[in-house]
Input
Amino acid sequence: MSRELFKFKGGVHPPGHKEESTGRPIHAAPLPKKLVIPLHQHIGQTAKPIVDVGDRVLKGQMIAAASGTVSAAVHASSSGIVRAIDMQPVPHISGLPDLCITIETDGRDEWIAHAPLDYQAMTPAELRVQLRDLGLVGLGGAVFPSATKLDPGAAYPCPTLIINGGECEPWITCDDVLMRTHADEILQGVAVMRHLLGSTETLVGIEDNKPEAIAAMQAAAAKMDFAVEVVSVPTIYPGGGAKQLAEVLTGKQVPSGKRSTDVGLQVFNVGTAYALARAVHHGEPLISRLVTVTGHVVRPQNIEVLIGTPFDTLIQLAGDLEHSTGVLMGGPMMGMPVPNLDVPVVKATNCILVKSAELFPPLPRALPCIRCTRCADACPAALQPQELFRFAKAGDFGRAQEYHLFDCIECGCCSYVCPSHIPLVDFYRYAKSEIWAHEKDKQASDLARERHEFRLFRQEREKAEKAEKLAAKAQAKRAELAAAPADKAEPGSATPSEADAKKALIAAALARAQAKKAEAAPKNTDNLSPDTQLEIAEIEARRAKIREQARQPLESKEKT
Amino acid sequence: MPSPFILDRSSVTQIMAWVLAALLPGIAAYVWLFGPGILVTLSLATVTALLAEAAMLKARGYPAKPFLTDLSAIVTAWLLALSLPSLAPWWLIITGTLFAIVVAKHLYGGLGQNIFNPAMVGYAVLIVSFPVQMTQWAGPLELTTLEPGAVHLTLAQSAAVIFGGDLPKATLDAITMATPLDVLRTGLYQQLTVDEVMTQPIFGHYGGVGFEWLAAAFLLGGLLLWALRIISWQVPLAFLAGIWLTAGFLHFFDAGRYGAPWFHLISPSVMLCAFFIATDPVSGATTPRGKLVFGLGAGFLTIVIRTWGGFPDGVAFAILLMNLCVPLIDQYTQPRIYGGARKEPRA
Output
């Protein structure tokens, strides 16, 4: 097939290391005793747990529901008992634990009732809700909720659908192997995508270092009742990036800050298409995925893994070796180190890469930047990494933003080619997080300032209202008093009657204050259930304690 | 340690080593055409540069090994040595090298921080301070052997000249010569036309006798650097174009008073500058269009200084002046980013 291909700027050619893991057939991982399923496995809002500790759950049962528009549900990967809903270590760049549901499996692997979706009979909106509730997210790495991506909104119809079989990261082969073995199902998923997006052109981009996958996909495409063009694209990192692949295939760039549907494209990973086919044609939620386990192991291979399976189980299966120097989730260019081997496989886990000093020698000491601009030549976003580095290092984040810091996709090409071995991407991540933190602080302080200003305004207003009321009341009283004793009082003795009036006013005010004090118990705490009252008491106690703590340092300072 | 976890095999040392290697054809041609004196100059500059680098690293509290082995000090030393007259006295070489390494490099913050090209700073200091000593160029052997009393200096004799200058005045006069640029300048002062000046024996086919071959050897090394992608094409091409266009423009309007563009182009200093000095990444422009502006500007200024300036060659000052403009050039030549607007609004 000859299609005019385009080039994207930059890119690098790291050694592929693909053969290691493509030689062995797909294994299914053993059912672990315990599944730890994080509730935030996608971009967007964390799913809300809908089961309780102690509940029995079935395989495929929704255990946490999507919350908000950009979110996806989470399901039990096997049957068993919910043992905990708490913070657990997860594979995340922050290294921080996150909310997870822990299921003790019962070994029966008992499915919940599920049935294929008649997607052609459903409205697109209904289908998207179904897909969201089946936990579908992009499996290429970004784990963006697929239902959201399948909604082009005003951009409907989206003419070009691109299926990403690029898989440009070294070592990773799960997409390659999936295309070799499940090409038909992938294209069944593609049919559903076309249906939702209204696409007329379907392109499958596969890097030319995967000839078997290309052949399998071409054979499957020939059987489809719609045109699918399987295109072999040059192998270059990050050619499997969605924007890069789209540019290679169509010559179009997604404008900075816009969505790909704005230029009539949408890109999905092959794994997502496969998961979509399982969801629609079998009613199965996303509870397992193909994971490449490779690097410093005895038998590098691809394994079909239930979400929530600990990394350790898979490394054992592939045969662990001594002298490992750490484990990555993802590839060597964009992957992240995991804090320990108990972390579970999540929807984003495409690869478990075990490092050794031989395969991944420690990075040499960084030297100063010599402005050679190799990074700029390699940058697929066409940025000037050497300038961004300079600004980030100097803490000049404003300038960094002016130089398009947020268009950086953190692909790592710049760090890869840097002759001074500067961890450039690190500096960009640092600058981005500083800017985000600053934004958050600014929002918080804006809010605090607004509140403070409103409080001052309210106090002023209340004061004015009070004064007005008092003045009005005093006026009335004075008039009343003046009218009453006027009959008795002798003319000319105006002064004592004035004093009397004042006394009467004070007495009346005191009486009112007393009455108010008597009924001072707050109204909204009446008629509360004992539980709530207990809760309020607890909160009050906590607040008192915090106030105490907050006051202490101040007081001690005052004393000294 | 976050991603990426792999690197390609490049290093600063490797880049600098290739630059040094690419200078070898030029050095070989130099020895062949002008005698072995340049080897003494190169060695002396190298030793001085390394000692100065080590001392400055120690003084600034930096580890010596990674910075001494990056070879950048040797590159500076060689570029300066190749710019100096090959029989310049030892103290001139040492002064220039010290100025380049200590002041132009380390006082500005060391590797990667210098805003001026260190070798060109060293050269500029010397030509301003010691203009007479800076004319002690060994003439091309092809011509000096014709002079009465001329000798082929051996390496030891060259060293003796450089360190002691104990050669008879007549011999020294016989083996040193004005460079073609000097001859042209002097001739034009004497109201000769370019064509009349060009009849003198120092001029060869395009440039000076011997000089044109030296220029070709530098060009060869430069093309090697380009083939290895250690330098980009923009700077050399723009620099040569700047020379050619400016000289050609002047020559077109008054061929009698302005040298031919080929003559200006095929000179060792221009070729050395185009491929080895203007391409210095640290003190040069970084954006693709900026590199073109930088090269064009340096070429233009070189001819302007050669034609109207007070010094025989203008390369060093042209580079230093363009070094000054780099932040401005970079700011106004930012390329379009992926998905960016066609026209970048720039503040």
User: Anything to note?
Assistant: Residues 156 and 399 of chain A are 37 Å apart (CA to CA). Residues 553-560 of chain A have pLDDT under 50 and may be disordered. The first strand of chain A starts at residue 27 and ends at 28.
